[in-house]
């Protein structure tokens, strides 16, 4: 990728994100009163985060499930830790360490 | 406004999160072979954690611009609602106002909306600035760290999966919307089988369409009265 490509990528991501963050300040009424947008706002983030987790785990790439077991274990560690302690950073770091220990075979399992 | 020391103690929880999470972004970016100096530039220009993590893989794989825009829209869609409760903190000046809006991340939003400790727009603006500062500093630290990592080390990219897992757990905990959870799983399965090349795009469009068409209790009630 050239510098122009990176700049374009940054402007696209930054622009869309800024647009979303700015929208309620310019069109307060639309969000506050539009029923469908309310429904979308309540339900989409739940579905989206589940989808993104599955995407990150690699469900779109079923043909080569190289480390399915390791991913599953590490995701479970993150989920349980997050439910228990509710400290995002701890859950992320612990889960990543567990995953790295498994894929790099640090424990000889 | 709050004193400088007060500002640091106010933003300390965000600092504890943004320094290491920014560092992970820096490591992933360098590790993926992307041009190194664009990592801090992304943290300055984009400033959206989950999307920046996701972008590492997408950019390395050569994603199209429209796909990138749609992915950003869907990943950050929740930000559409944050401004509603921050109206009273909007700075008066044009530049300050634009920057304040630019900087409303998940963590900044929860700090500004929930704590009740921030009451004036000047303090709010400082909170936004400090938080982004932590994020950029973390990114820079990560770029340095990436050079010291042993070659052949695998699995750091699991941080992205872990971040999404945490966000998913928090969403489920807050909303307990099992229908939406099921919808996410079904959309992933359908898109995974049918269109794995455009997985994210196809699956998220599916989510939006189904949610827009789904009869809600509220609407159903109205319809039975008609």
Characterization of the model:
The complex is a heterodimer of chains A (109) and B (226). Chain A is built from five helices and no strands. Chain A folds into two domains: 1-33; 44-109. Chain A has 109 residues and is mostly helical. Chain A has helices at residues 3-26, 28-33, 35-57, 68-85, 88-103. Helices cover 80% and strands 0% of the residues of chain A. Chain B has 226 residues and is an all-alpha fold. Chain B folds into two domains: 4-176, no CATH class; 177-226, no CATH class. Helices cover 73% and strands 0% of the residues of chain B. Chain B has eleven helices and no strands. Chain B is globular and about 55 Å long. The termini of chain B are far apart. Mean pLDDT of chain B is 87; it is low at 219-226. Classes of the chains: A mainly alpha (109), B mainly alpha (226). At the A-B interface, helix 1, helix 2, helix 3, helix 4 and helix 5 of A face helix 1, helix 2, helix 3, helix 4 and helix 8 of B. Chain A: The chain crosses the membrane at residues 6-23, 44-62. Chain A: This is Branched-chain amino acid transport. Chain A: Keywords: Membrane, Transmembrane, Transmembrane helix. Chain B: It is found in: Cell membrane. Chain B: InterPro entries: Brnchd-chn_aa_trnsp_permease.
Q: Please state the overall shape of chain A, judged from the principal axes of the Cα atoms.
A: extended
Largest sheet of chain B, in brief, is:
none
| String of helices and strands of chain A | HHHHH
What order do the helices and strands of chain B follow?
A: HHHHHHHHHHH
Average predicted local confidence, pLDDT of chain A: 87
Instruction: Report the β-strand fraction of chain B as a percent range.
Output: under 5%
What is the number of beta strands of chain A? 0
Structural class of chain A: mainly alpha
Low-confidence runs of chain A (pLDDT<50, min 5 residues)? none
Strand-pairing-aware structural class of chain B: mainly alpha
Report the major sheet of chain A.
none
Helix count of chain A equals 5
